[in-house]
Every structure is written in structure tokens, then in C-alpha cells.
Amino acid sequence: MRGALGGPGVLLRRLREVMAASISPQERLDRLVVLIAGNLVAEVCSVYVLREDGSLELYATEGLNREAVHLTTMRAGEGLVGLIASEAEPLALSDAQAHPAFSYRPETGEEVYRSFLGVPILRGGAVMGVLVIQNRASRIYSEEEIETLQTTAMIMAEMIAAGGLKSLAAPGASIGLDRPIHGVGVSLADGVGLGHAVLHEPRVAITNLIAENPTAEVNRLEAAIGEMRASIDELIERGDVAHTGEHRDVLETFRMFAHDQGWLRRMREVVLTGLTAEAAVERVQSDTRARMLRQTDPYLRERLHDLDDLANRLLRTLTGKANGVAREDLPENAILVARSMGPAALLDYDRARLRGVLLEEGGPASHIAIVARALGIPAVGEVVNATALVQPGDAIIVDGQAGEVQIRPQPDVENAYKDKARLRARKQKQYEKLKELPAVTRDGVGITLQINAGLIIDMPNIAATAASGIGLFRTELQFMVAQHMPTTAEQQALYAAVLDVAGERPVTFRTLDIGGDKVLPYMERIEEENPALGWRAIRIGLDKPRLLRAQLRAMLRAGAGRNLKIMLPMVATTEEFRRARVILRREQAMLEKQGVAPPRDLRVGVMVEVPSLLFELQEIAREADFLSIGTNDLMQFLFAADRENKRVADRFDPLSVGALRALRRIVDAAEEARCPVTVCGEMGGRPLETMALIGLGYRAFSMSAASIGPVKAMLRALDAGKLRERLDWMLASPEGTINLRPQLAAFASEFKVPV
């Protein structure tokens, strides 16, 4: 078994000399393949580069027919080279022609070569090409040779990323680094944003790849690992996780991976091949990312994020570079790209310069999605490997309506989206014309339209939309963006400011709705098998009455002498509501003893989102001052389908017969008890769904500010009486379809109702 001549260190030093030489890109590639072949005792060395159309093109070769360079191409997945590109894994064969994926290309003259070793050219986990060596005789390639070829491939990846091969691409065959990418994710916030990429956590640029002294580099790596471990240990032992915004459980996971011997051993081994410590970290993490991105197990994908975070910490320690982008340096028309972000981080950026947000993580109900909607920033989440696909400054289009992104779009695609953005702007102007018109149906039925809010930045939307008030103020957002538990005084100041801006318009404050997916960074995380059905919202408030009392006290003080509406979330029984109301009355009595004026009018209501309340509707409608329908949770609980789980989220429709019958039960019981009822979930902000709810008898809705215009345009064209008759027939018909969405859409089309 033969190894590399002179070792990997000799090869890397000679490669560096070639990289620094003042020669053409093609000559540089030609010299590199000669060097690699000679060092690894191979008769063939070839470089294939990924083109923008997804095919692989032979860019240089030593040993094969030189006339095949820039002529031989293959699709990803085609042949052994295509197999390596699709799987992003090395492939070593002693008899290549016996492999089922072998594809013979007569123009290359490779039929005489039996042994084959190929490795992917990776950067950030993304495949940029394939590097291959071959031999005539049957040969088993050593681990050292595979490692050396992978290290060499990293050097080539940096050369490709720096644009060193752009001039070699034929017209219409640009290299994959610049290829347009169409990404599909999920919509987080509506709108279309066109701009240029800004990485929320910029990749650390590694300028020095090849080590002068491998032993010294190992020592640097060991020191950085020790420093990283010490910083994590200090955070956990000190308990000051609020300062970093990271939860203790996350840090515990970091600590576990920071001591993972397999991951650390791989980095040490790569350093000994001749790379610097930071290049070794980048190389190992790129290999790991490429492999784990092809896993379907969500646990493994989550572990990839942990390793990404650790690798970034190590790189920043080794290079001495701080994390994050300077908020004041945000360019015009910025599209923010991140693996994940907290709501507070988004609020740090200059809204006037931000055109969109692109995330690898985050669903429609995530904290960042709520804040993005409040800011009116188009956002798309769950775009796989987004941070590796994007280069800073790349042109990006974020389509928050369709949940799609275009990275480095072609001119015709960009022009189409510009037209879409202009059309959307014209529609918004049309909606603005409706602002001062009453929200009344064609047959004279008045509808109350309010907005959802959660931060003081939402408040200008009341005047901008001429909304009747705030039907849902999510108080937990103040807790989520803070670095510590907000004091009673801080809470009171926010609630008072909201009431000041609202004036005589009503505001409904929802008490703290945390737990489940809403975990505060400074509170202990409780591990539960099913957190959505676990310890959350009012259940936490009743079990930790000091927390609930402090918030109610802040609301009562802010509402002194004013109208005040307080809503309790996640109430499952009438008894829970009574217990919470007792706590409220005690706080009110205590404040009155202290001379604090009571609210002029205090109303206490319930968010109906737990199906058990459907069987206590008469009781809860008599006890509560008002009801609000949280359709997001109500629907997922009714259908036992997690709305964040792609496998089941589309298996139910809120416009199905079962869902609409349940919603009718609520509005009928509220009407019988003369208890006001409002829909404040997402269902009430979509025109077709809102139309159906009006047909059921609902007359009050709270939604995102952006939904007010489309919903008002719909209802002003609607005859509620005709819809009621049609919907009654649909729900009563025993032979009707289960999903009424097509029939409701047909009704809207028939009567020219814009939905």
C-alpha cells in the first residue's frame, strides 16, 4: 500500500507555491493536478467543477485525454463522479468498472484505469465539484491518501469560492458558485422583499489555510478548545444564561459536544495533514455538514446545529473575530440570512434598511415570525442550508406570501418579482382607500376589525389601518425579547404606553402565554413528552401565582381609571377561569386599599383554544365577560395535528365540516349567553376563512395589520345573508363534501367577492 510521496505537508507547501504564482487560472489548475498525481503516485488526477445547471464539467486533468477538458460533462448522480457529488462522500474503489454507477466516457480514455478515488470539493457543506485520482492497477487507497485528497479539495474549494475559475466557464455554463437557486420553505411573514444578502452571523473568513508548523497548529487548536470549554463551563456554573440569551439546556448540550472525542480527534488529524487550526475546523465542519444535511432524522439535524455553533465559537476564538454583524453597518435593501434568530436580535436591526429575512429554522408560529409580521418584514423559514448557499452581497428575493426564495435570480425572474412587488404596492394603495370606509357587508352587517399586537412598535398600525382596537395583545413578547424577567414596573410601563396610544379604542391584554414552544431564555426549561399539551399559559400562572399576580397587578395599575380587558389563555375548564379570576380580584382589592384607582370598566375573558371548553360553553359563556377564539391551537388540538409538523400539518383544513361545526357551537353559545366573541387566530385574518366565519355568525375579528385591507375588501363585497343560507345548507347536507373550501371559493367567485 503506497502513501503520498513526501507526506501531505510537502504537497500542501507546493500547492501554495502554485496558488501564489502569477499564471492563468487554467495553467494553475493544470499544475495542481500534476502535483497531486505525482504526490499520490497516481496516473490520473482530474478536477470536475459544478456548473450552474447542476452538471459537472471536467476542468483539468493529468493522465486523461486533455482534449476532453471543458467538453466532458455529466449530471449530478451520473457516473462515479456524479455519485460523489450527490452524496457528498469520498468513494474509493479497487475495481471502478465493476461498480454499478460506473459510466464510460470514450473521449477521456479512462477505460484503462481500474482503481478510483474521488472526494467532493466542499465549502460550508455545499458541493462545488469533485477531485479524482485513478490508477491502472487494482489498488486499495490508504486512509492517508484519502485524507490528503480531501485536504487538497478544500484548497480548491477556496479557490473556486474566490472566483478563481470564473474566467474558464463557457458562455451559459457558469460555475455552480454563481448559479441561481430556487429555495422552498414556509411563509413566516407576508410580502415580497428584494435586496442583497447580509449574514446575521458572518462566516469567519480563513485567509491562511496551510500550516508552517503543524505541531504549533495542534497547540493552537488545543488552546482554543480549552478556552471554549472553559467559557461554556463558566456560563453554566455561574447560571447567568440570561446575559447570553442561551438557555441552560442548550449550554449543557454544547458542553457535551465540546467534550466529544470523535469530533475533536478529527480536527487534530486534519491539522496534522498540513492545515492551520482554523482551516481544520472549517474542513471537518464542512464534511460533517455535508453528511448530516442528507439525514432525515430530525435529531441528527438538530445536532448539526449544535456542531455548527461549536465550530463557529472555535473559529472566532482562533481568529480573534467577534460574532455578529455591526447593526449600524447594515446596507440599504438588506436581506438578513441566518440559521435562526431570536426576536430581540431582529429588533436590533434598522427597520428602514431591512427588506426581508431568510432563515434555516423557524415556523409560522415561532417568535421571530411574530416579530417579523409586526414589523411588516417579508420572511421565509425552513430553507435547508440557506447560510451555506448564500454569499454576502448575493441578490436575494424573499417571497413571504409563497414561502419561497430566489438566490442570485436570473434577470427575468427578478423582473417578474419586481412586477409582483409593484402589483402588491398598488393593492395596498387600494386598501388604503378603504381605510376610512366602514367595515360593513353589502347587506348592512357591521363587522369589527381589530389588530393583533405584542410590542410598542405595533401601535402605529392602529391609526395606519383605522382598526377598531387591539383584539389580542401578546404580553409574552415583552418577556421574550428581554434579557431578564421584566419587573412589575417595566410591565406596567408597557401596558400604560399601549393604552395611551390606543386612546378610547379597546385593548385586550392576554396574560403570559409561555411554555410549549415559547421558552424564555432565563427560565428553567421543563422537558415534556408533548410540550404543546403540557405545562403552559394559565397552567403556569395558576401553579406559580406570584408570576400571574405580578402581571395582573401591572395591568390593573396601568388601567387605573380606564377601560381594561384581560384575557386568560389555554383555559381548559370553567374552574380554571374561576381560580384565575379569584387571584385577579384579590390583586384589585389590594391595590384599592393602597389608594390605586380601579379600572373604569374591567372585563375578564377567556381564549377558547382547548377543545374541552366546547363541552362547557354554556357555563364559560355565563362566567366570562367575553370569549376570544384562538383558532391556531384550537384547530391543531381538534385534529391532533401539530401545525409545525410538515408530515401532518396539511392533513386537516379549518374549512372542513367538522371544524366549522365546532366553531358554530361556540358562536351560538356566546350569542345565547349574550357574551361577546372575537376570532383572533390566523384563521380570522385570511379573507376566505373570514368569509366563512361571517357566514357562521362571527362579527368581530383581530388579525395582523397587513390583513385588515384584504379582509375589509372582502366583507364590503359580501352579502352575509346569502352566505349564511348557503353555508347552512353545506353544513346540513349529509352527502356534502368534508372539505368546504372549494365550495366556499366557488361562492366567492359567483358573487365576485375578492378572497
UniProtKB/TrEMBL annotation:
Keywords, comma-separated and alphabetical: Cytoplasm, Kinase, Magnesium, Metal-binding, Phosphotransferase system, Sugar transport, Transferase, Transport
Chemical reaction(s) catalysed:
L-histidyl-[protein] + phosphoenolpyruvate = N(pros)-phospho-L-histidyl-[protein] + pyruvate
Q: In terms of domain of life, where is this protein from?
A: Bacteria
Cofactors needed by this protein, per the record, are: Mg(2+)
Every copy of the GAF domain together lies at: 24-170
Where is this protein localized, as stated in its record?
Cytoplasm
EC numbers = 2.7.3.9
Which Pfam families does the UniProt entry name for this protein?
GAF, PEP-utilisers_N, PEP-utilizers, PEP-utilizers_C
Q: Main localization of the protein?
A: cytoplasm
Which Gene Ontology molecular-function terms are recorded? phosphoenolpyruvate-protein phosphotransferase activity
Q: Which family does it belong to?
A: Belongs to the PEP-utilizing enzyme family.
Q: Which PANTHER family match?
A: PHOSPHOENOLPYRUVATE-PROTEIN PHOSPHOTRANSFERASE (PTHR46244)
Q: Output this protein's name.
A: phosphoenolpyruvate--protein phosphotransferase
- Its gene name is ptsP
